[in-house]
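Re: that backbone. Tokens:
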């Protein structure tokens, strides 16, 4: 094989000056030479795009750094220029840790900034309780999977009556298989998730459709939704108690639509926007492009006083201290540490390894250990102060700015639904592998690489892979992204998941089914 001797600068990325590895932007072959900090490195093996290359020789057992933090230990000697991946890099993570609070610099929440007239704005639907929706839709929430089809038929037939609903942003049902034969925590998780949808500010009206004999009884679910829910904007009935559940549902939707005729968008500060941040199908570029892009938006929003939601607790393992030490006070720190150790116990209680991530797709994309994946994933939270620790599907306090950590798994469907139930009115979903998934609120997909953006333009809303271009202007791309978020929140533009009508929910199953 011919050897290339002229270094090519654009082929690799060094994230932090202390890192032991660099990342290949494009696929490279053995014998090629790249340049890092003025020093040439000749590859000893082929390296796929997104994978790591040893910047220096590493002895067996040596700690290996990326993002300036340890991502594992060398399981064999590694020569300079060698491909670094599962064959020579292992996790060094263990079980529960007794964390110590060591506060570090974070972007503080600006108290009182909501009243500042210079705060950017969007056009939203302000509800009587002060929360602001990004859409004004009718949502059909069913207590039990038995009535999924009936709920879908009501939504479909209602949408066909366009003359009566042209002032409504949409009528949508959200199928799920639960609500029957559930006990304890399992039933509670279902009720908490569905209650979060019932009280959501993007729903100008809600039809709650039940069967009648399910464990998830109608009155219990409505009680779970809370006293503050807009009862005048809710219609509910059990299908066993009416002659034709579809006709009854269509009448209820019509009543709700009439009540929504006076709803109008109004100018609101972006501090009224509640964003949830999520990554799915990560690759090695996620932590270089898409997640830092979202993190900078998080810093921009929380710096003004807005809340931002982040979940996926197992994808904090190995990077948790960068979050814990940004806690606004020691009580918040203790709650966050308890959340992380509690999730580790959840794994062990089910006889599962705590560090069984990354997934096969993540590994193919260049991620080797959970530490590496987590250090890239937590960048979605920027450097914001951690101000709220929420249980699964617990309602966020929209008046408390800063980063809110929500207890829940990393699964794309469950974690995204979790944040919507907690009150997120728009989701920012980064991906290196691509996914069509969407949720009840606008779900903007941000690709970590340009290839997937060009291959799946009907999935991807923003190409963060452009940050890898040699002439990239990060500030201009940040501003472009912020503008896109405001336009989608204002209803000027629909997210691709809305255009394709991808709107799913997934509820965390946490207990016993009869």
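Recovered sequence:
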């Amino acid at each position: 094989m011919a050897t290339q001797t002229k270094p090519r600068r654009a082929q690799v990325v060094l994230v932090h000056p202390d890192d032991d590895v660099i990342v290949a932007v494009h696929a490279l072959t053995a014998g090629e030479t790249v340049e890092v900090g003025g020093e040439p490195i000749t590859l000893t093996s082929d390296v796929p795009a997104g994978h790591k290359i040893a910047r220096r020789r590493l002895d067996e057992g040596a700690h290996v750094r990326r993002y300036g933090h340890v991502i594992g230990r060398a399981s064999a000697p590694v020569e300079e220029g060698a491909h670094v991946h599962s064959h020579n890099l292992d996790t060094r993570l263990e079980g529960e840790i007794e964390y110590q609070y060591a506060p570090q610099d974070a972007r503080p929440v600006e108290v009182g900034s909501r009243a500042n007239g210079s705060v950017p704005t969007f056009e939203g639907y302000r509800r009587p309780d002060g929360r602001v929706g990004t859409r004004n839709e009718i949502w059909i929430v069913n207590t039990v999977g038995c009535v999924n089809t009936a709920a879908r038929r009501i939504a479909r037939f209602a949408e066909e009556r366009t003359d009566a609903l042209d002032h409504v942003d949409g009528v949508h049902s959200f199928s799920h298989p639960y609500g029957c034969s559930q006990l304890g925590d399992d039933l509670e998780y279902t009720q908490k998730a569905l209650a979060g949808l019932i009280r959501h500010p993007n729903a100008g009206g809600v039809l709650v459709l039940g069967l009648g004999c399910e464990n998830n009884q109608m009155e219990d679910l409505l009680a779970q939704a809370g006293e503050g829910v807009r009862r005048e904007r809710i219609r509910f009935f059990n299908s066993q108690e009416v002659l034709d559940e579809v006709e009854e549902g269509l009448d209820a939707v019509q009543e709700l639509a009439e009540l929504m005729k006076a709803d109008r968008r109004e100018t609101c500060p972006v501090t009224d926007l509640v964003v949830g941040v999520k990554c799915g199908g990560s690759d090695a570029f996620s932590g270089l492009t898409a997640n830092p892009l979202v993190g900078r938006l998080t810093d921009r929003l929380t710096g003004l006083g807005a809340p931002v939601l982040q979940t996926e607790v197992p994808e904090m393992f190995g990077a948790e201290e960068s979050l814990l030490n940004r806690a606004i006070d020691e009580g918040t720190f203790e709650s966050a540490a308890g959340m992380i150790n509690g999730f580790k116990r959840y794994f062990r209680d089910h006889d599962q390894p705590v560090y069984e991530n990354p997934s096969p797709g993540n590994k193919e994309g260049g991620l080797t250990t959970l530490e590496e994946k987590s250090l890239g994933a937590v960048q979605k939270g920027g450097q914001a102060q951690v101000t709220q620790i929420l249980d699964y599907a617990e309602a966020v306090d929209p008046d408390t700015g800063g980063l809110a950590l929500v207890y829940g798994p990393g699964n794309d469907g469950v974690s995204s639904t979790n944040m919507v139930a907690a009150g997120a009115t728009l989701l920012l979903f980064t991906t290196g592998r691509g996914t069509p998934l969407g949720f009840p609120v606008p779900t903007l997909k941000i690709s970590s690489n340009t290839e997937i953006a060009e291959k799946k333009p009907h999935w991807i809303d923003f190409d963060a892979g452009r940050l890898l271009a040699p002439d990239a202007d990060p500030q201009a791309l940040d501003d472009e992204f912020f503008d896109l978020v405001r336009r989608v929140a204002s209803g000027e533009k629909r997210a691709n998941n809305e255009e394709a009508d991808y709107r799913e929910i997934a509820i965390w199953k946490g207990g016993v089914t009869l």
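Confidence is low (pLDDT under 50) at residues 1-10, 111-116. The longest strand covers residues 203-210.
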